Amino acid sequence: MDTNKQFKSDYQIIMKAYQAGVSLAKGQKKLCVKDVPSLVKSAKQYIVALSAQTDRTGYRNAVRAAKAQVLIFAEWVARNPAKIKEEDYETMNTLLTLTGEYEASYIQKLREKETLGYRINLKKILEKPDCLKKVLGKEMDRIVEEEFADSRALTISKRQQQFFVTGSGEKYHRQDCPYCKARELYLVTEKMIENFGCLPCRCVTEEEKEHASAHIDLSAVTIFVDESVRKNPFHPYDESLPEYEGIYSFVVCQGKLKSENEIQEGNLIKKCASFADECEEALNATNVAIEGICKALMWTAFRYGFCGEVFVFVDNLGTIGKLKKTGELQPLEELFEKVSLRHVPRTGNKYADMVGRKEAIFHANPKMIERLLKAKETADAIKEAESKETVTRLQEIIKCKQISLIAMQG
Q1: Residue 272 carries which DSSP code?
Q2: Rg (CA), the chain
Q3: CA distances, 18 to each of 7, 90, 111, 194, 302 (Å)
Q4: Where does the pLDDT of residue 102 fall: very low under 50, low under 70, confident under 90, or very high at 90 and above?
Q5: What pTM was estimated for this model as a whole?
Q6: What region, left, alpha or beta, does residue 305 occupy, with left being phi > 0 and alpha being psi -120 to 50 degrees?
Q7: How confident is the model at residue 263 (pLDDT cuts 50, 70, 90)?
Q8: Mean pLDDT throughout 104-131?
Q9: pLDDT tens track for 338-375
Q10: pLDDT at residue 179 is higher than 80
């Protein structure tokens, strides 16, 4: 890719990252500027400052300040849209555009400085939630530098194994690879292999492949949701509690998974289970599943900071039909690039089901658990007393029958 095309591509990626960063930051920035005119006036000053910057230090200071102005403006738009004028939007767009151009130019300088800089996949870096959270608080070139700061080679059986790539090849190799004779090789780290999207050459052993970075799709997240409605085991001890309870559980994984068989330690992000909030009158499996899906999407967006494509698997077919009919998920869907609902048979959703069975009790109210334990102890004591009384009574009956038999024999 020539320099101009690379610059345009980086600029477009950066602008999309800005938009995603603003969406993530909504509600987290204090309105430290009293009114919009003051904010716009400052923005115009930063536009002039950015245009005049030539040195690296001045660029960094101006970019950080400009991004802070954009965040504050986004909060004004979210809270007081009626106070925003058309020219205010134009001013902030100019500031953001100029900032994006500066950032893209410094990414270009970084590419020129690094040996394999032209191979850096900027989009893949900014799709990572932890990197996306930084886009409006830190310079882009610094985010990229930090992403590749880990210079460790892969550790295989307590020894370090180095891998290499060619200038444009799609595979990584051992240094003694017979397929790369007379070709120039460049040493790469684990993070570089992941970012470049390189696959192992035939010269790489199976053991080395296992320890190399798994090729995980960072632009997608897969969620498995399970639900159940069952009799409340504590109801016999406290009749004020509902007779039935709903439990949902979800498992969040990085990448686009086809089935739960692909869940592994390397892509597992979160597993959670909890009691449903639905009142007993509205308690059914479909409503519990919907609540589980909503909670899983909220966690993924706000706690994990992901905004790409999401695939949701659920074993309750009625859930998918109801959501398509009512559109309940639409507000949450707007937080992501795309949300796809898919049905999976119960036999293909065992992992989420297991999470629900094992972990739901840990999310119960501690005071309720304490009250239930006391109620159970009382019930057990009553049952034990009743058992003792029954045994005593039986012993008395047997004794009376024995006396009667002796009298008859006499």
Answers
A1: E
A2: 31
A3: 16, 16, 21, 24, 17
A4: confident
A5: 0.52
A6: left
A7: confident
A8: 86
A9: 899 999 998 899 999 988 887 766 655 555 566 666 66
A10: yes
Amino acid type, 125: I
Give the model's confidence band at 313: pLDDT under 50 very low, under 70 low, under 90 confident, else very high. very high
The bridge status of strand 171-172 relative to strand 199-200 is parallel
The DSSP letter of residue 173 is: B
| Nearest-10 crossing angle of helices 86-113, 56-79 | 140
**What token pair was written down for 154?**
């892969």
Domains annotated for the chain, with CATH where assigned, are 3-147 (no CATH), 154-211 (no CATH), 222-364 (3.30.420.10)
Query: And the tokens for 86?
Result: 């058309």
312 three-state secondary structure: strand
Instruction: Give one word for 219, left, alpha or beta, with left for phi > 0 and alpha for psi -120 to 50.
Output: alpha
Alpha carbon of residue 135 to chain centroid: 18
How far apart CA 29 and CA 301 sit, in angstroms, is 17
Can you name the residues that pair with 270 across neighbouring β-strands? 252
237: confidence class by pLDDT, cuts 50, 70, 90: low
- Give the separation between CA 51 and CA 45, rounded to whole angstroms: 10
Q: In Å, how far are 197, 210, 218, 358 from 267, measured between CA atoms?
A: 17, 14, 10, 21
Ramachandran angles phi, psi of 187, nearest 5°: -65, 135
Residue appearing with tokens 């830190």: 138
Q: Is 273 helix (H, G, I), strand (E, B) or coil?
A: strand
pLDDT value at position 368? Answer: 57
- Say what the alpha-carbon torsion angle 182, 187, 189, 191 is, to the nearest 10 degrees: -70
Residue whose entry in the numeric block shows the structure tokens 């309750």: 316
Handedness of CA 118, 123, 127, 131 (dihedral sign): positive
Identify the bridge partners of residue 136 per DSSP, sorted by sequence position: none
Query: Is there a contact between 274 and 360 (Cβ–Cβ < 8 Å)?
Result: yes
The per-residue pLDDT for 68 is 81
With the C-alpha atoms ordered 255, 258, 264, 270, is the resulting torsion angle positive or negative?
Answer: positive
* pLDDT score at 361: 62
Length of the chain counted residue by residue? 410
Looking at residue 155, what is its pLDDT? 40
Residue 259 phi, psi (nearest 5): -160, 170
